[in-house]
Amino acid sequence: MSAQLSFFPDIDEKEVRSIVVKELKIYRALRIRIQNKLELSEKGIQKNIFPKLIESDVENELKVIQMERALNNSLDQLERQIIEMKYLSAERQNDLNIYLDLGLQKTAYYEKKKTAIFMIASSLGII
Asked: Where are the domains of the chain?
């Protein structure tokens, strides 16, 4: 028998999911940070109005740009909706509500969610 071909290499799925979810949560916060920075700039304020412990503006801006590229270009519309509803919305939603809202069956939902997470991980160079 021939070995089954897989789009993704054999890796720890839980570890990948954990890393991607953590990065998505950071991305949410970094988007706000960049909006705040733009707002300050528009008002003519060049310095941060809050204490700043770490200088990481360039890295954070790159993280946001690369995460947006991964979300917009590597996912189909349904995968993007799942990720936005599950990890990027202001209120926490559970999987059951999401797949019911999207009109998906449980199995199809979890397949799409898994594929989306692996596509994000692949796009960002995590795997």
From this structure: 14-123
